[in-house]
Amino acid sequence: MMAGAADIETGTDVKCDVDAMKEALTSDKERLFFVIQSEQEEVLLAALRNPVIDHQHLLVLLKRRGLGSVISAIYARKRLIEAYQVRFALVAHPDTPQHIAETLLPLLYIFDLLKLCIIPGISAEIRLAAERKVVQQIPTQPLGNKLTLARRGTSAMLDALLREGLQNVVEACLDNSHLKEGSLYQFLASSHATAEAVSMVARNSRWKNRPNIRLAILKNPRTPLIWFTTFLPALPAATLRDLLLSPRLTLAQKELVRQARPSSHL
């Protein structure tokens, strides 16, 4: 009796699976949204073969976790990844194999690459790869895009933007919380830091009172003299002596350093 009941139950399960597979293959568009809620991988794989499946179904499906081989099956069917939204959803999905995500990355727009760098749940490898793609594209971007990246980008993106030295872009970078003090110091020490850019840093409420940043400002030969007049009185004698030894300062800048503390015998 028990064995027979088990056989009947197994047969019922098989029939249910067959029916579910058939429904996945033949459902119309509306019904297919219900079918893709199935927890059975075989049913989901069958749904991918349904000729009416489109990007709207896939975007709903890709909101789920634990999709296993379903991700690879979507990628293998080129028709299913023609829609841009599906490509992005695949790259952003935590279950997507790294080699698939990296293959799709070059097909994404720059601001979607930026999203991958800042949204949670993205693997460190994909985040880094997306960041590299953005940095590579920065030189060819229009000014508007560079300004947006300056406001929202990662520290690596800000480093690349600062190296270009564009006045408006530099100003936007200064208020980005991802900008590191070391990066700004290196920028001020570089040939990319113009007099205008230096003055922006010197006026910025976030940076102007940091000792290392002030020192970098005072070591730049392009720094307007007004900032020597402003910052020198607060510097110790040892720092003033070091500034006088800097080969980068102009004669006018050095003269202001000498005048800063006459009693220091500089």
Instruction: Please trace the helix and strand order, writing H or E for each element.
Output: HHHHHHHHHHHHHHHHHH
Largest sheet: none
Strand content: under 5%
* Strand elements, count: 0
Q: Residue-averaged pLDDT, rounded?
A: 90
Low-confidence spans: pLDDT under 50, at least 5 residues? Answer: 1-12
The outline comes out as rod-shaped
Structural class of the secondary elements?
mainly alpha
Describe the structure.
This protein is mainly α and 266 residues long. The protein has a domain at 1-102. The chain is 65% helix and 0% strand. The protein contains 18 helices and no strands. It has helices at 2-26, 29-35, 41-48, 55-61, 69-76, 84-92, 98-104, 110-118, 124-137, 143-152, 155-164, 167-174, 181-188, 195-203, 211-218, 225-231, 237-244, 251-260. It starts with a helix and ends in a 6-residue tail after the last helix.
